[in-house]
Amino acid sequence: MHIDVNDCGLPLSAVLTSASVHDSQVAIPLMKLTSGKVTYCYDLMDAAYDAAQIWDQSKELEHVPIIDRNPRGHDVVPMAPHEAIRYNERTASVRCNSRLKEDFGGRCVMVCRAEKVMMHLMFGMLALFADQLLKVTGN
After folding, report:
1. Cα(102)–Cα(97) distance, integer angstroms
2. Which end of the chain, N or C, is more open, meaning fewer C-beta atoms within 10 Å of its C-beta?
3. What count of other Cβ atoms lies within 10 Å of the Cβ of residue 40?
């Protein structure tokens, strides 16, 4: 399950793929899917997403890509201080994935077939969204 998350930890879009699909292969479809639902300004991604196609797509969608550079054996120019501060918000995505696995049944899916797996995970996402929304609004 690949998830797009906002700064508050609310899941916005999700795509189910086989386990062999790397997150970076789903980045562009997720950006397009989420852009069709909400207006946002930044694409925050770790070094695994450092690919020219992802940078270009982010800019084409009129977003600001803040993607950690993958050194690939070369020296890397560090992020500007304001970008580094904004990049720290990416931890919301890590927390969302962790909560889905640990608290909402994403770790042990006991069904077969993509449709059933998707339904199981989406029920977890729905519960996660509701729980996170209550936390964000202070209720």
Report:
1. 9
2. C
3. 16
CA dihedral 25, 87, 94, 130 (to 10 degrees): -100
Q: Which amino acid is at 20?
A: S
Which pTM was predicted?
0.85
The encoded tokens of residue 24 equal: 């970076």
In the chain, the amino acid numbered 50 is D
Average of per-residue pLDDT across 47-58: 95
- Rounded Cα–Cα distance for residues 11 and 120 (Å): 16
Task: Say if residue 70 is exposed, middle or buried (CB neighbours under 10 Å; 0-12, 13-18, 19+).
Answer: middle
CA–centroid distance for 18 within its chain: 17
Percent of the chain whose pLDDT exceeds 90: 82
- Residue 122: its pLDDT value, please? 95
List the CATH number of the domain containing 117: 3.30.420
pLDDT-based confidence at 125, cuts 50/70/90? very high
